[in-house]
Design goal:
Length: about 375
């Protein structure tokens, strides 16, 4: 069996669908991240295809090492996004070839189902409470929110601090102590302001606080200082890639939870290696997956047999209307896919509905209304 061609479809959820075709008719599915630069990622995939077309898709590790090590800039996110999608698709082909789900090929499972959390918007305390209750009604036992509806100053006023705390407090009151609440600062806060907020949030006992400052992958020092200043578990890592990108974070123990994204960290096998690195440092893993249901599926396969797994993002949903059979989430958990490969197939009509036309606009920079200065996001 040989790889015959690559097909990339831009999706309206800001994702990309990669289909790797073979000369025997098998098609592998992959989900490279697009970074708002989907056309650039597609070009990278086609460049890698120049090497891969005509080769055995089951030589996955060899292809990964060749493509990774032949790059002058090995940690370049766009190249790793392309490589992650290709690796994912080749594993899908492998599973379909032998008739087994990918998680079984990765060593089997250590759990019967995978816990997920849903996102809840929180512009005001009232909306935060309503949205939290809605997520619980949908079956989630854990939710995550970003309590910064407005641009964030380097150091906020007491009123600004109170607004953030009131949002999380209203969610806690709405869902009670049985539901986990995670908080995503999304790198919007300075280390000094983050330290203030973490102290105020401790009584509300969040599951974790994600990306509390502009640290990774740029500067681990401020994150380490914050981790040592609070009892709240710190999570980060969605922007990091490969085990080398997580090495300092894990060795310094600057976070209790790491969050690689399978769509650009290097793929399923690389995520397993990242998880093993974290495991020896007593760090748990909670994969990031914000926008792509195929990325969610791949993460479920990778986490099925990962001992130090905590929870994962369900931001892409189960693929309703996109897959012929969507994932099913019940009581906050997703069952392990049982079909061969990744265990999902794309619905042709659904693909038409989800296909994106034209370029993606860049994210608009958030700016303070008083002076027009930027606020990170």
């Amino acid at each position: 069996m040989k790889i015959s061609r690559f097909e990339v479809t831009p999706l309206s959820n800001r994702g990309l669908l990669l289909q790797v075709h073979t000369d025997e008719g098998l098609i592998g599915l992959g989900a490279p991240m697009n970074y708002e630069h989907g056309r650039t990622v597609e070009r990278a995939i086609m460049d890698m295809g120049d090497y891969l077309i005509g080769r055995d898709p089951l030589q996955i590790e060899d292809h990964w090492q060749t493509l990774f090590r032949s790059s002058y800039s090995r940690q370049m996110p766009i190249l790793l996004s392309a490589l992650s999608g290709i690796e994912m698709a080749c594993l899908d082909i492998l599973g379909k070839t032998v008739g087994l789900p990918v998680w079984k090929l990765l060593g089997g499972s250590v759990r019967d189902r995978v816990r997920v959390y849903g996102g809840a918007s929180s512009a005001t305390p009232e909306l935060a409470a309503d949205n939290a209750r809605q997520k619980v009604a949908e079956g989630f036992t854990a939710i995550k929110t970003t309590p910064f509806p407005d641009p964030v100053r380097t150091i906020e006023s007491p009123a600004g601090i109170d607004k953030v705390i009131s949002i999380i407090a209203s969610m806690r009151e709405a869902v009670g102590p049985q539901i986990d609440i995670a908080i995503d600062f999304h790198r919007a806060t300075s280390p000094a302001f983050a330290k203030l907020l973490l102290r105020e949030l401790e009584p509300l006992r969040p599951l974790f606080v994600e990306e509390p400052t502009r640290a990774m992958p740029d500067n681990v020092g401020p994150l380490l200082e914050l981790a040592r200043s609070t009892t709240i578990p710190i999570a980060t890592g969605e922007r990091c890639a490969t085990r080398w990108g997580f090495r300092e974070l894990c060795e310094q123990k600057a976070a209790a939870i790491i969050q690689p994204d399978i769509r650009h960290c290097g793929g399923l096998l690389e995520m397993k290696k990242i998880a093993a690195l974290a495991e020896i440092h007593e760090i748990t893993i909670a994969p990031h997956s914000a926008a792509d249901p195929l990325g969610v599926v791949a993460s479920v396969h990778a986490m099925a047999g990962t001992p130090n797994f905590l929870i994962m993002e369900y931001g892409g949903g189960g693929g309703e209307g996109f897959f012929t059979e969507a994932l099913q989430m019940k009581d906050g958990f997703v069952e392990l896919p049982q079909g061969p490969g990744l265990g999902v197939e794309i619905d042709p009509e659904g693909l038409k509905a989800f296909t994106h036309q034209g370029p993606w606009p860049l994210r608009t920079m958030r700016r303070h209304p008083e002076d027009g200065s930027y606020s990170d996001f």
